[in-house]
Specification:
By secondary structure, this protein is an alpha/beta fold. Helix content is about 35%, strand content about 20%.
Length: about 350
């Protein structure tokens, strides 16, 4: 039951017919685990706490640094050097005394992931490295816990919902992690300070919808936005088993069978160059730094660029390691009917 002061505190959302008193009681009963109390974790935690999520766990082994403050708005100059999880807990308790908060000042790893995640109904991943993302995803799959995912890079952010109502999980989008150090983090490449606020509030919104059972979630979809260009796109994500079944039905080979070597590509280009349309799906700065020709269409721009891709040519996707080009095969299956291939191991292993 909600206390009288809680009814006043949450009044503006309780009067929403989509949420109502029933939804608010679901929020109070919910147990949510936030992985990371950094750029994404700060807005997610703030909005979930003031929304009335009854039990919130915070996992982070880091301490507050001055370089965090331009985007991690839960902290101030006086918090530098303090543990993020415990400091976040203290700040959030001031926002809403009716929420039960637990701080875990430790790094989530293979030894504690199962224990931590098993205590909660919903997990939100705001981590900044692939090792943690895959660990959290795989643990959620094993324990059948829904996962709200978000990531940020420079001016670009992504949000999705995984392992929810038999929907796809993170590995359906990215089957394997990229090689270590291939993708730089915020410390190396930078990030605009407002971006985690934008993406974090989207993540919090998805969590609230899942808990209350309202609206349409991003399960099976990847929301992508670019704050510099004011562009937003939503891409569909298929479960791997479904994608394989579809390809068999259409008498097409699997993505694995449609991988070719660099030697094969070289031979094809030498023998029938007019029949080949080579698409480099890396980011523009990667293409400008080094390429072997073809056109540059970044992975997330493929759908909107479909009209410029000739329908009568054999498409060859290439990237740095072969991972993004395999994803391109899967994503374009519904709207590009060309014969398509991916260059195995990409450019990195094919000097």
């Amino acid at each position: 039951m909600l206390e009288r002061e809680e009814l006043k505190l949450y009044n503006r959302q309780i009067i929403l017919p989509e949420l109502g008193l029933t939804g608010q009681e679901k929020l109070k009963a919910a147990r949510v685990l936030m992985i990371g109390a950094g750029g994404l974790g700060c807005p997610v935690l703030q909005y979930l706490v003031v929304a009335g999520v009854g039990h919130v766990g915070i996992v982070d082994d880091d301490t507050v640094d001055i370089s965090n403050l331009h985007r991690q708005i839960l902290y101030s100059i006086t918090d530098i050097g303090k543990p993020k999880a415990e400091t976040a807990k203290q700040k959030l308790e001031l926002l809403n005394p009716f929420v039960d908060l637990t701080a875990y000042s430790e790094r989530i790893n293979a030894d504690n992931a199962g224990m931590l995640i098993s205590k909660y109904d919903l997990v939100i991943d705001g981590s900044d490295n692939f090792t943690t993302r895959y660990l959290v995803n795989d643990t959620c799959v094993a324990l059948n816990k829904p996962l709200v995912f978000g990531s940020i890079f420079k001016f670009e952010g992504q949000v999705s919902v995984f392992n929810y109502q038999e929907g796809p999980n993170y590995r359906d989008l990215f089957p394997e992690p990229p090689p270590e150090n291939e993708v730089p983090n915020c410390d190396e490449i930078g990030v605009i300070g407002v971006l985690p606020g934008i993406i974090g509030t989207y993540m919090a919104n998805e969590a609230i919808k899942i808990i209350c059972g309202i609206g349409e979630t991003l399960s099976g979809k990847l929301f992508n936005m670019n704050a510099l260009e004011n562009s937003m796109n939503v891409y569909k994500i298929a479960r791997q088993k479904q994608a394989i079944a579809t390809s068999v039905t259409a008498n097409q080979a699997s993505a694995h069978d449609r991988e070719i070597s660099m030697e094969t590509l070289t031979n094809w280009l030498a023998e029938n160059p007019d029949e080949i349309y080579l698409i480099d799906v890396r980011e523009t700065y990667e293409f400008d730094d080094y390429n072997i020709g073809g056109v540059n269409i970044p992975l997330y721009e493929l759908r909107e660029s479909a009209s410029i891709i000739p329908a009568d040519k054999k498409l060859i996707f290439i990237c740095q390691t072969g991972q993004r080009s395999k994803i391109a095969l899967q994503w374009t299956g519904s709207y590009l009917k060309n014969e398509k291939y991916s260059v195995k191991n990409g450019l990195r292993h094919n000097p």
